[in-house]
Write the structure tokens for this entry.
Amino acid sequence: MALIEGCRHSLEISIPVDEVEGETTRIAADVQKRARLPGFRPGKAPSSLIQQQFSGEIRQRVLESLIPKHLHKQFEAENLNVVGTPDIKDVHFHKGEPLRFKAEFEVIPQIELKEYKDIEVPYHDPAITDEDVTRRIDEIREQKSQYVNIDPRPLQDGDHAVVALRSVAGVEGEPIKQDEMVLELGGADTFEAFTENLRGLSPGDEKEFEVGYPEDYGVARMAGKTVRFQATVKGIRRKELPETNDEFAQDLGDYRNVDELREAVRKALFAQRQHDAQQEAKNKIVDKLVDDYDFPVPEVYVERQIRNRVEQSLRAMAADGMDPRSLKLDWEKVKDSQRDKAVREVKASLLLSRIAEREAIGALRDEVDKEVEKIARQQREPVAALQMKFEKDGTLGRIASHIQTEKTLNFLFEHARKTA
């Protein structure tokens, strides 16, 4: 085996003449059984004529039979962990001579692990203050708030205006139309143009005005546009928040009083912030690992990771209302821009797999089953049917790999040297 570059190697293989001739004879005999030639009964055409008439097919089948067989045999003999599909080159196939060919392929790199159980990482458990708890309860009160209609009067800041809205200029296609839109005058989520133009109007009043939208606005056809609206005020509402009392706590769940609710909120906030802080620490551990190792990675893995990154970006665009098909991607430029990150992600994956192998960390069957059951609930599908589907399309393997990665990250975090 010869090293070409990075993880790419080559092998030159020669298959003895007698094996080539034996396989050629076998395949020719198989073709002879099925051949239909004028003047001969099925299966009775002479072998010499079969080899002449069907030489192309016989040659291709001999290559397809012998090359993979001998490649696999050589890979096993040299204990090579090959990834991707080998490129077959320089095929020498002539009658009376050995079949010779060259194969180029990539292998998973051998990684000599260094110490990984004492990686220094900044981390401390989060502190949850009374103010944090109160702020979260206020958010819950906002979610449970109700809007109450109040008597007609001129709108002022803090009011929630009920408005019928229709665009009259500034956007292409169908007009933007909202029969009943609630806007809080002076609110953080309300564009200033709406507050300024609605302030002082009373129910029944109409007005036309323009609103400028930023380039990054979530609705694509309004982003960066100045839209002229016709607005009709239909009413005024006041937002009423529930009081923070024992009745409010009991309505939210199995809490007897506000103190129990506050304690539950404190625990939930701690769990979420602890998870986020640990995730950040794990990311730093992985970054340190990647920085500490220098080894080549298979190009086929890098390409796959780039495609995964691009597909995630396209799905995010689609979720934001953009049509990914309208983008004209220059794949070579995309690869160049994403390559460094993809290489680091592949290196991280290979390192974590190697550590998992060393520490005998893997996904247990019941852990995979629980994840499948969770997905089945989310998709409202029978567990057994989803299990069969995942076995066929390889999703079970990906789930197991994800669980193994998470367990390996937990292992590294537990054994890390945490500093304040």
